[in-house]
User: Fold this.
Amino acid sequence: MKDSYVKIILISFVLTMCFSSCINDDEEEQIALQTIEDHEYVDLGLSVKWATCNVGALSPEENGSYFSWGETEEKALYQLETYKYWINLAACKFIGMDISGTEYDVARAQWGGTWRMPTEMEFRELIDKCVWTNVIVNGKEAFEVVGPNGNSILMNLSGYIIDDSIRHEGTIGHFWLSTAEDNLVESPTHSDSKARLGYIGKKPTILRHQYKYIGCSVRPVSY
Assistant:
């Protein structure tokens, strides 16, 4: 009788611990994954919250949409002649040194609320303070990015578009930042034809400059 009673107590304890664990897991998921304007984000323990998907994507592993820097809509061709602010190969119309949160910010235009393009400093923080691990998700190569608090997002290798063709998909990722190149050309009303982006390759630790007309991905952030 005593043995049966002990077994009942032990079974009850195990079930209680399992139930508590499930509740805690659910609570952690709710804390880690929340929404702004119906778009999910993860708090990685950094200065800003990072969206789980690119603009135009429905899941983290999807490429989403591609945009020229400072434009807020997709288009059929990504060429110098089709770039809205193009003047010549060396210069474009000046729309600001940092367009985050402005009318030229595609994240703000497409998602609304407090969503915006990340700055160079914010992407640098994502690189320097997180652990990047190459993973395969639904057959697609990507990087799992784990923040200081243990939460994570997925950064996909969506390549970029020139003309109407996606280049280097599955090999590299080009993510527009809100920061323009800092070499002004001719006058303050004209800016360099390049802007800064987060470059993700075998070593996702490089920030490169890219021509503004090229179609690249955008991963929004918010405070």
About this structure: Residues 5-31 have pLDDT under 50 and may be disordered. Helices lie at 2-32, 106-111, 120-129. Residues 196 and 209 are 5 Å apart (CA to CA).
